[in-house]
Every structure is written in structure tokens, then in C-alpha cells.
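seq as requested:
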Amino acid sequence: MHNFRIPADVEERVIQRRGRLHAYETLRPSRTALVVVDMQNAFVKEGAGHAYVAEAASTCPNINRLADAIRASGGTVVWILNTVTKESLESWSHFHRELSTPAGSKRRTEAMSEGAHGHELYQTLLPRDEDLTVRKSRYSAFIQGSSDLDQVLRTRGINTVLVTGTATNVCCESTARDAMMLNYRTLMVSDACSASTDDQHAAALYSFVINFGDVQTTDEVVALLRAGNQQAAAAE
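C-alpha cells:
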């Protein structure tokens, strides 16, 4: 797991911008979704695909813990599966043909196609029947043409998104930024995301907390969910 903390200079910039370090000091669990991005074998299991992230497996216990806390609070858990289809090969042809070598594109397509071992969720993750699964065809799960995640969440009355998964600086950050742009309260969970290097992980989270939303730890998020449950119970 990455050794991450928000440094003093970043804290100072965040506080100057919004008056406090954490944008979200309360959560309403029933309107909150845990979005788990691309925790599939191709990224988490060495040798299973095209883009192994060595730190990804170490975040699975925190992701499972957050999922349990969200379910117990009446929130929503969504497992995002990066998926290559014939349609996406054409509609996102620039990426597949110009930003990848033919060999790289072939390997990615084989690993991320439906039914492939690389496409499956990593074995230590613990999805449940009540959870949702959404397939996406772009880095961001929210961008137009990628998935129906926005519609799914709005139908459930979700206004807060907790982003976890891999890679922090690619699909997680892309998804989180677009969530904020679509007016979701968006929080990236620092010790439930992973990247290829500590520097890539940190840079993505620094930029996000300054400009787009909040960054907190699993412990902090679980505490917010518990407090939200208590507040909801007291209001009944």
C-alpha cells in the first residue's frame, strides 16, 4: 500500500481555497455510493493482463471494509469493470490505434474482453448479490459513451461518490473528476486506490484535493459513515 499523506503546502492551498482541509465532514450514507474502479485480474494479478499494478492487491482489504460499511449504512456499492467491445474499438479508435502499439492494443483487448480471466474481479474482493456491476469502455466511468453509471446512481438518489480502485492517476482520477463535474460530492479514498508508483499516486491525489474534491483514508470514511448513521437514527 502506498505511504501517502497530504503535505503541509498542499493543506495550505486547500484551506486557502475552501476554508478547511476536508470538503466533506459529513456523509449521508443512503445517498452515498462506493465506486470500485477496475479491480480486475488484468490490473491486480501479476501476469494476468497488460497493466499490472503491484500495489493494487494490498488495497483489497480496505475496499472490502468500505463495501461492508456502505452496505450496513444503506448505501450503494458499484463494481466497475473495464471492458473492451467491438463497439468501443471503433468509437474510441484514437486510443486503440494511435495511442497504443498494435501488440499492446491486442493484449489489452484480449485481457479486457468479456469472459477473459483478466476481465474478472480479483479473487480477494467480496462482492455481494445486492451490489451493482457496471461495465465501462473508457478511462472514466462517467464520460459520455463509457457507461450508464450516472443514470444508475441518479435513479437511486445518489449525490456522493467514494472512488477507490486502480490506477489512481488514470481510471480512478478520470472517474472522480468527471463525477465532480456532474455535480456529485466526490471523495477519493487514499489507501483504497493504487498506482504504478508512489509519485503517480500522490500527484493525482494532490491535484484532486486542491481542485476537485476530497481525499480521506478508509478509517476517516468509515467514521463519517458511522456518524451519518447516528445522525439519521437521531432524526427519526
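The mean pLDDT is 94.
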